[in-house]
């Protein structure tokens, strides 16, 4: 193997190669490197979107929620206790979910209001991460306060301390609507997750929500936070079998699961593109080696007459073609890894200086392009690049090994 590798290196440095052959050889290396770099960046972006979904978006949305069919739950504490006894449930907290309209002179805007207990909410939600200390303290101490998303606050042109009038729909026992109830609140704080939830949600105190909805009980739903968000369907069903309340079962894969499925679909497509792009780039290795074999017929014949076996000749040309793939894959993985690490900062700079909005926050669950580099993806890209490079060398190397010494010397 060491002799084959040495011969391959000398063939690569040989001055007998034409400029055209050098160009073809270099283009195969560049193609493999470029393909590796692009695919590492794309896979890192998909990883970033999945991490943002898990850590940011789903930190504000309930993983599982049991909501009363009508009115309030009879005993939300019992539901919470049953849920927290499950090993997959991290915590449970009461909530009242309301649909509201924000009334301003000449306009209305829709808003989902979640009435919460701040002390319990921080156990099941990441809301605290997106609120400043001062705003959170103000919200905790203001019974009629509301936490409003940054996007909605900007649309309404309100700030901390401003008054808001909410119109809360009221249901009769028959299920028909009656005149909505006006709820006067004051903006106690602003939360900013950096996505569409900033335009859709607001938070008030549990007592204020109970009064606005005119509930007899303390809460209309119980929200669960799970250790593993992807176990939501199974855990929701297992806990529901123990709960005696009549309630709707909501879990995030039914309402927001399309986001996760879209990410996985794009990731699968990226893996297919990985193989196809690197396979196309490796075709240049085939053409390069075919021309090298034609040019090196005399050298091959001399090696054979000196006792070189066909296996040695084949290994030599496999090494020569594989070196193109190895060099291209190493360079591509290094460049791709660097781009994946610094891509969020680069895109943020472009957004700041060029005023580009790549992901409008009112439309997407995050407002920036995330990137999470995983060594698994780098290793996969490098391995596939190396494998396709080696496979591309097999036919030209076999042709070289089959060359008869007399034919090679005659061609010289």
TrEMBL record:
The entry's keywords: Cell membrane, Lipoprotein, Membrane, Transmembrane, Transmembrane helix, Transport
Membrane topology, as annotated: Multi-pass membrane protein
Q: Which GO terms describe its cellular component?
A: plasma membrane protein complex
One Pfam family name is MacB_PCD
Localization annotation: Cell membrane
State the source organism's domain of life.
Answer: Bacteria
Give the transmembrane ranges.
20-46, 269-293, 325-347, 378-398
Q: Which residues form the ABC3 transporter permease C-terminal domain?
A: 272-403
Q: What region holds the MacB-like periplasmic core domain?
A: 29-227
Give a yes or no for keyword Membrane in this entry.
yes
Q: Which residues form a coiled coil?
A: none
Q: Which GO terms describe its biological process?
A: lipoprotein localization to outer membrane; lipoprotein transport
Tell me the InterPro entries matching this sequence.
ABC3_permease_C (IPR003838), Lipoprotein-release_system (IPR051447), LolCE_TM (IPR011925), MacB_PCD (IPR025857)
Q: Which family does it belong to?
A: Belongs to the ABC-4 integral membrane protein family. LolC/E subfamily.
Query: What NCBIfam families does the record point to?
Result: lolCE
Q: What is this protein called?
A: Lipoprotein-releasing system transmembrane subunit, LolC/LolE family
- Organism this protein belongs to: Aliidiomarina sanyensis
């Amino acid at each position: 193997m060491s002799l084959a590798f040495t011969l391959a290196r000398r063939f690569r440095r040989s001055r007998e190669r034409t400029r055209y052959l050098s160009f073809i050889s270099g283009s195969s290396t560049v193609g493999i490197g470029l393909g590796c770099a692009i695919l590492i960046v794309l896979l890192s972006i998909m990883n970033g979107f999945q991490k943002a979904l898990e850590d940011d978006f789903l930190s504000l949305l309930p993983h599982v929620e049991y909501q009363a069919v009508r009115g309030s739950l009879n005993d939300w504490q019992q539901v919470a206790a049953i849920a927290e006894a499950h090993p997959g449930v991290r915590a449970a907290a009461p909530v009242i979910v309301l649909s509201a309209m924000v009334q301003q002179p000449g306009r209305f805007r829709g808003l989902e209001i979640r009435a919460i207990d701040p002390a319990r909410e921080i156990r099941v939600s990441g809301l605290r991460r997106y609120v400043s200390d001062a705003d959170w303290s103000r919200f905790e101490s203001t019974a009629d306060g509301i936490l409003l998303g940054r996007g909605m606050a900007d649309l309404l042109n309100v700030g901390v301390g401003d008054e808001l009038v909410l119109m809360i729909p009221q249901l009769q026992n028959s299920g028909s609507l009656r005149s909505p109830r006006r709820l006067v609140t004051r903006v106690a704080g602003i939360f900013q997750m950096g996505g569409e939830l900033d335009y859709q949600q607001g938070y008030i105190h549990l007592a204020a929500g109970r009064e606005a909805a005119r509930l007899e009980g303390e809460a209309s739903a119980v929200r669960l936070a799970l250790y593993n968000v992807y176990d939501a369907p199974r855990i929701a069903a297992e806990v529901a079998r123990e709960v005696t309340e009549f309630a709707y079962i909501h879990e995030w894969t039914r309402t927001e699961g399309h986001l996760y499925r879209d990410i996985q679909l794009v990731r699968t497509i990226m893996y297919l593109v990985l193989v196809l792009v690197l396979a196309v780039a490796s075709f240049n290795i085939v053409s390069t080696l075919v021309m090298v074999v034609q040019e090196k017929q005399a050298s091959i014949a001399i090696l054979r007459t000196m006792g070189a076996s066909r296996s040695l000749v084949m290994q030599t040309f496999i090494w020569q073609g594989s070196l193109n793939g190895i060099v291209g894959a190493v360079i591509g993985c290094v460049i791709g890894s660097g781009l994946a690490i610094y891509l969020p900062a680069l895109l943020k700079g472009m957004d700041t200086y060029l005023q580009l909005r790549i992901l409008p926050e009112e439309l997407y669950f995050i407002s920036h392009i995330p990137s999470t580099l995983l060594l698994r993806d780098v290793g996969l890209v490098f391995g596939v690049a190396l494998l396709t490079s080696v496979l591309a060398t097999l036919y030209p190397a076999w042709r070289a090994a089959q060359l008869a010494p007399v034919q090679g010397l005659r061609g010289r």
